[in-house]
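Section 5: illustrative case.
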């Protein structure tokens, strides 16, 4: 593991590498738990508070540090911003004796603890998870390359035909799940599925008198899974709701909200978290921000 967390408890895999070269999306098991063009494995923290407290990023294997970057701010990416080739954010790249390279992206500003040329051992501290580069949530992306080739650590030979590969690069491979969350967003009313799918329901700004509805768009959820929706604002908690699913569903959304108080919502930034859980295991988490103005 390239970071010190417990999958399903204090972190989740939000996306696997996209192995489909077209505009379609496919992870190594032919599922949809990826983003178009993603070349690494995204290990997401559950919230921003974890990032502020500090989650350690560690070397996944013995090697020698080739290059580091430790100068970019921790802030959500604004679409259209030119990152001048620094999409990976604050980062460490390590060369390994077997010809592989590991690259650790989106690290916290000022946290990088190694230097180019330094030898490191598996498990050695490299820095902390952050919010730098092209990202809008705290996570570490682990990329693996061999020469010019991008390597999926879950299926390095890509000959698994959608099944569990016979070989992988992990000492202890994380358990795969095809369930996840496409998105979390806020609307001013309970949307329908078409509005959720197209993004038409999403609001970035609400008026003080608008209703505030948080929704989560999920995929491959099972009967018994739970979706938690939590909203906080400038003055603290706004609402919390849990929905339990009664049937397996390929695609679905759940929503919950409140009407504005008689005096209107206080101005400021509100943050919602949507979490998908199966039993005691967290499968996915997404967040969204909305401004009341």
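Designed sequence:
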């Amino acid at each position: 593991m390239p970071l010190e967390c417990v999958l399903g408890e204090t972190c989740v895999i939000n996306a696997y590498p996209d192995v489909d070269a077209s505009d379609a999306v496919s992870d190594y098991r032919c599922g949809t738990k990826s983003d178009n063009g993603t070349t690494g494995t995204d290990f997401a923290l559950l919230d921003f508070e974890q990032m502020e407290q500090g989650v350690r990023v560690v070397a996944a294997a013995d090697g020698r540090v080739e290059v580091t970057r430790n100068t970019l701010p921790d802030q959500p990416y604004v679409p259209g911003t030119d990152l001048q080739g620094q999409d990976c954010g604050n980062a460490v790249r390590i060369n390994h004796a077997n010809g592989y390279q590991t690259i650790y992206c989106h690290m916290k500003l000022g946290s990088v603890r190694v230097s180019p040329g330094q030898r490191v051992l598996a498990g050695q501290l490299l820095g902390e998870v952050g919010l730098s580069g092209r990202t809008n949530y705290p996570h570490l992306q682990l990329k693996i390359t061999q020469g010019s080739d991008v390597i999926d650590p879950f299926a390095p030979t890509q000959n698994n035909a959608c099944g569990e590969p016979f070989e992988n690069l992990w000492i202890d491979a994380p358990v795969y799940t095809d369930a996840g969350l496409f998105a979390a967003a806020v609307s001013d009313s309970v949307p329908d599925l078409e509005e959720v799918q197209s993004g038409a329901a999403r609001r970035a700004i609400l008026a003080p008198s608008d209703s505030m509805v948080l929704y989560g768009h999920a995929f491959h959820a099972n009967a018994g899974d739970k979706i938690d929706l939590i909203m906080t604002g400038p003055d603290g908690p706004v609402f919390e709701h849990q929905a339990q699913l009664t049937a397996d569903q390929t695609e679905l959304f759940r929503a919950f909200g409140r009407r504005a108080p008689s005096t209107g919502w206080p101005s400021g930034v509100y943050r919602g978290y949507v979490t998908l859980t199966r039993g005691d295991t967290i499968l996915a988490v997404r967040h969204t921000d909305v401004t009341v103005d």
